[in-house]
Amino acid sequence: MSTPTLQAPSPAGTVRRAGRGLRVLPGDARRPGATVTGDGVVFTVYSSTARRMHLVLFDAGTGAELATLPFPDEYRTGHAFTMTVAGADPDTVHYGFRAEPDGAGPVGPVLLDPYAKALAGGEEWGRRPDYRCRIVDDAFDWQGVTRPRIAPQDLVVYELHVRGFTRGRACGVRFPGTYDGVREKIPYLRDLGVNCVELMPVFEFDETDNPFTDPASGAPLHNYWGYNPVAWFAPKAAYAADPWGAGPVRELKTLVRELHRAGIQVVLDVVLNHTAEGDHRGPVLSLRGLDDGAYYLHGPDGSYRNLTRTGNTVNANHPLTRALILDCLRYWAEQYRVDGFRFDMAPILARGQDGSPLERPPLLEAIAADPVLAGCHLIAEPFDADGLDLLGTFPRHGRWMEWNARFQYAVRRFLAGHTTDATEPALRLRGSPDVYAGHGTGASVNFVASHDGFPLADWTAYEQRHNEANGEGGGDGPHDNASWNAGHEGPTDDPGVLRLRARQVRNALLLVAVSHGVPMLAAGDESGRSQHGNNNAYCQDNETSWLDWAAGDAALLAFTRAVLAFRRAHPVLRRRDHPPAEAPDGGLPPYSLHGERPWQPGADGLLAVLMHRPGQAAEPGDTVFVAANNRPWERRVEPPPPPGGTEWRLFADTGAPPGHDIHPTEGAGHVPVPGPLTLADHSVTVLVAHPMGRNER
What we know:
single chain; alpha/beta; eight-stranded parallel β-barrel; 13 helices; 21% strand; elongated; disordered N terminus
């Protein structure tokens, strides 16, 4: 049966159907989306290509279409279609839009509001969604909890997937795979020593849109990671323990509030470079039906520019799109109180309307200068799928940080023995001053593993990607992993290989922790999570990606906690500015390179660094020595003399067996180092200068 179209005969006319009274009043062109006011619900949508626009109302319980209301021409302002609908109950009505194109052509499908703050129809994970827009009340009780204020150089970032973090065995939470499940794990995060979680995409996405199937079973594979957004303002409903109604909004805000209460910041991984609408073969969901030319990049022939390898590319520096992106970021910062954003394929946001890179992209400058976003961390993934690599040259405007892939590959290649030259790893531990000169150490987010590529355990166990389960013939995923399998590809019972792999994982974690910049860990690396050689697990919604809380490496977890606590305790590792290599007062330089003998750098396969912070009026001095040997034999290293009145004490030695690799640096059990070190093969040792004569208990 067809649904009648309900016309508004006059600005104050009454529209009725089946006893439901709806009054259409003037709207507000400055309020995009759906906003509840004292007069009703203000609906506003922008389109330069639509001749007319219609509001479609749905029954919130059944999804049945209730009414179609045209936006009165007399309420239209420019390209803004707006009206207030009195009598529309936000709790019982969902909505969408239909656009009549400017010129000949049929009325299109129901479109999602680009400003929709929540979507209905995608509440059940794995079930094909039938999306509609919800009307949301932004009110929430923050209980007086305020955002933790943490300087970039003091951050320890932990990247996690909301579903995968608590979906695996023995997670021990009431609602696995949800925002609420992550909330229950806050004590674990605090105990680990992280103070910032980076949530992989939580904007609403359709996990069923993956075209590939499992080659073994033929079952559809999911878009598990979620890097294909449907709505930028709406939280993923299926990630909520209560996915209905206001549940997802309330639950994600509760997670943010409780993380803040625990002193942990929240950064969102946002995908603003493309959408789930794809190219001409994809669905018409929202932006394409409203203003295709404004929201997406097109080639001279009208085809979609595919600089993201997903089908479309957002026209980020078009004024309309730029306003949408800024409004989105402001909304999450204001209403969800998030502490920052990590921008997927951020160079897309630096491209002009012809797709070419801009010298001064207005969007990036506007984000950096926006007063609402002034307290937010802005983290760029500085390369895109079309090969534009802006690492070190990303338009920073004094604000932007970057995922430092040079750190990742320099440390990986050195530890794996692909190079014996320690010059580049030494620069990375110093905060990459060659890349971020003048921008401070906080510009560099340092990591060895992330969701992209091998997790840390697999970096030590595989030299080839094993992605056959992704259904793409095994050819997807990064080609270069800078990995070393320690002599055997994949699982093994060889105790020598296993011992070496365990050492390499600890080496990587330790170097990340003692580096200047912002350390980042991928969830599960602290306990040895493996993806069995899959380096592109975007579609693996199963044990390949989920954390297995029953099989974690307890000794590795204890090691990670200890090295993060060590970083927290030593300000010499968390300097805001790049430490110079020269001593202004003739004493120890803030950063110096050494070799098998003090002040003689250049020994093949040896990274030896002294980091020194002289004592100040209210603070004692702080000095740390790091030595990494990437050769398959042990070597003797003489550390430089510690500052006067101190002695070297051993903090970490990854050459020792797990469980015996960390030592207290004061109190009972401390290990003094009065002479040269013996570095085991493929190992890292860290010493700390400790005042002599201090009473020990």
